[in-house]
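S.,

Sequence below, as promised.
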Amino acid sequence: MKTKRLFTALMMATMMSCGIILAQPCQKDKRLTPEQRIEMQVKKAQQRLLLDEATAAKFAPLYKEYLEAMQQCKPTCPKQQKGEPKELTDAEIDQMMQDRFAARKKLVETQETYYKKFKKILNIRQVEALFKDNGPRRAHRPCMKNPQFPQMPKGKMGQAPAPCDKCPASQK
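The prediction came back faster than expected:
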């Protein structure tokens, strides 16, 4: 009876230690280079679209070109200096908005261009699936490195945040 309990306890300890070891991040995992990331996206798109070998051979270089063109459509974020975040001037805000609009126009033009190219290789349902799932995520959002509005002070967990003296809503 004691050996059965000892054996059970030993098995439990072994299983728990194996779980802890497996939960550790692998040191072999490194950040992917942009080229590797594009390769992964191409492979996933080929699998999702169920392409045969001949179509996949035509699709891969065009899709790589498309992904690179979409990367160039992202608006550039202005460099933020370290230290206290400065408040933007009206001219800087206007310039950021103009840049954002230009980036959106470029994005739509790029999508229209590659839509026509993809239609020559894929059927229309595959093209729809490709454009529905892909594209830049929230390219129209402002750069988060340079917020335009002051951040609210954070409260402790479970409590409301402390009132902010900079925000007009909290000065009532």
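DSSP finds five helices and no strands in the chain.

Coffee later?
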